[in-house]
Amino acid sequence: MEVSVSDFDNLKATELRLGLPGIDAPEKPAPVSPRGSKRALLKANEECWPGTSKSLEADTSNQEAQPMAKAQVIGWPPIRSYRKNSFKARKAEVEAAGLFVKVSMDGAPYLRKIDLKVYKGYKELREALDNMFRCFSTGELSGMEGCNGSEYAITYEDKDGDWMLVGDVPWEMFISSCKRLRIMRRSEATGMPSSP
Amino acid sequence: MTYFPEEVVEHIFDFLATHRDRNTVSTVCKTWYRVERLSRRSVFVGNCYAVHPERVVARFPGLRSLTVKGKPHFADFNLIPHDWGGFSLPWIETAARGCPGLEELRLKRMVVSDESLELLARSFPNFKVLVLISCEGFSTDGLAAIATYCRVLRELDLQENEVEDRGPQWLSCFPDSCTSLVSLNFACLKGEVNAGSLERLVARCPNLRTLRLSRAVSIDTLSKILARAPHLVDLGTGSFTIDHRAEAYHKVMNNFIKCKSLRSLSGFWDAAPRCLPAVYPICGNLTGLNLSYAPAIQCADLIKLIHRCSKLQRLWILDCIGDKGLAVVANTCKELQELRVFPSDFYGGGIAAVTEEGLVAVSSGCPKLSSLLYFCNQMTNAALITVAKNCPHFTRFRLCILDPKKPDPVTNQPLDEGFGAIVQSCKDLRRLSLSGLLTDRVFLYIGMYAERLEMLSIAFAGDSDKGMVYVLNGCKNLRKLEIRDSPFGDAALLEDVGKYETMRSLWMSSCDVTLGGCKTLAAKMPGLNVEVINERDESDEMEESPSDLGRVEKMYVYRTVAGPRNDAPDFVWTL
């Protein structure tokens, strides 16, 4: 295949460099180390800012600073490893545990258990509960928008022991504080305040 | 003054509070040198490789308190390879031989082994104070030795160390006769704790004023301890998980009420929001509060707590407090001197935490603010200019915008003017950390205005060698300069080689300095150690001989009278 001038330009555009795409940084010599050039390339991918390895399809006509890729630069942000490790450990604890909570439904003979982590939001949760408890109810479950058509309200017990209506707080906050779920009959629910 | 008898001169020297002053008077004449060295009780060694331990011990035989620092600051962020150095053993061995009267040892960023702790414990009969900060290499067995053999131990202070857990028995090693403890901080330990031993230890130490518990200590144990030690001034709460409906909650609250002397709180490792009211009774007395290890407590509950802390001088918090929470801080904590806001989500892109608004609010509400560490998602020049005007008393100003090289989001400009305003307004600024998009201009300002600056941290900043040169030429009091990922090369490095002998150290990583440049520096300045750090990869078969033109990844330069060190690992070349 012939290499035309424009092809050559594009080739240069996709070159791995240490710098923002579109900036003509002067050619820098490879860093000194016993590993030689292999290491230089590896370092360019890992440590250099911004993520140059991702810029293979970079648009070089865009001369202004592009938003930074969320690559992880070594030693950044400058937080003591002790602090980073203790947060990491805590996160790992939480993640490993999964978030299995019991789900009860008024009138149903047995309870179920679900892992809240697998759902991305309230809609998915509602659908899953719907599927799980369909056989016990005549209508659809809904506790989110408080629509009048439904027979049931979905509630949860939070870390403090209070019974709350599902759907008020952001999803992340909900799954971090939900201890169990209860699908409550509307007739019981109407006496409840909607949120604390 | 030379006609006074030496005892009088010595007595006068007693009034000199700082190391700097004592160092200065020792250079006046031989007599003063002698008087000073024989009466010196406390020595601070900022870089363990700047001087041989033997020389320190020989010069100051009456030494009672020794402080030594090892690895450079960027070691905190994993930029220094694990076995670079900073070993405490030579210092402890030498002190054991030369000044058996040693009472206090403080080590920071050093490698401390169980062997050295055991030697320490056995060698100094009058040993009273051990402080280890950001150290590693030891286990709870080493602590057991300290507990067993240091008969008059007053302080055992472990701050943010990586300690290997070999079981809870170390705490039981404090003999029944140990009643002298004033301060015990083992918050950084990860293993189990023997609650009974801890309670008995606290009960028999009537002078205990500081107690910082580790995460493994339950609220039940805390409650019992508070009942036994209501005179505590500084408390780290341990895990602080309570089921708020249980009796334990009310007991602990009642015990807190009795702690009239409590001024500083930290810990709260697993605290849930509903448990916080247990400490409300003493909030009004608090001068220090550290909630930076309590990610479960969100903005609303933080605000409820802080509303009650009108006397707060020092606040360490996570950024989930948000700008709204910082506004509450500004309205409530009029005595605030030090604020640290840490990120709860390290890699950004999370829930918008704190921005320039929070900082501006605090600066306007807290005129005594002098020390700041602030991690945020964005900052504007306008905000920094306002902060500079509101708070001219900053001595420490460390700003970390999580996104490197991020410009002012409103104007899209670099943050040169903002930081320029800070250094111009804050005449007493001693420590500064920069972040965000910065050109050479900010360094021009720093060189021009930051006369008292002693420590400067630079990352992803500057355009050319000129930036670094402005700083080296301008900052007369600069002691530590650390730079990463900035375009400074040999020309800047070699512009004023004499400057480095007036400084403790210079660190440069991922900059444009070459091996040749480092070699030139080393050749010109024999009073400096120029270390080049090259981490090796096992998979490389052939070692290419490095060219002088090659860039150096990591370079550490420091003044020393000890010559090149003999404990450097393979990957550290001292040129």
UniProtKB/TrEMBL annotation, chain B:
Domain annotation F-box: ranges: 4-45
Keyword Nucleus (UniProt): yes
Keywords: Auxin signaling pathway, Nucleus, Ubl conjugation pathway
GO terms classed as biological process: auxin-activated signaling pathway; pollen maturation; SCF-dependent proteasomal ubiquitin-dependent protein catabolic process
Pathway linked to the protein: Protein modification; protein ubiquitination
UniProt xrefs under CDD domains: F-box_AtTIR1-like (cd22159)
Cross-referenced SUPFAM superfamilies: RNI-like
Subcellular location, record wording: Nucleus
Keyword Nucleus: yes
GO MF assignments: auxin binding
Gene Ontology CC terms: nucleus; SCF ubiquitin ligase complex
InterPro entries assigned: COI1_F-box, F-box_dom, Leu-rich_rpt, Leu-rich_rpt_Cys-con_subtyp, LRR_dom_sf, Transp_inhibit
Pfam families, per database record: F-box_5, LRR_6, Transp_inhibit
PANTHER family per UniProt: F-BOX/TPR REPEAT PROTEIN POF3, PROTEIN AUXIN SIGNALING F-BOX 3
Subunit annotation: Part of a SCF (SKP1-cullin-F-box) protein ligase complex. May interact with auxin and auxin-responsive proteins.
UniProt protein name: Transport inhibitor response 1-like protein Os04g0395600
Native organism: Elaeis guineensis var. tenera (Oil palm)
Recorded name of the encoding gene: LOC105051060
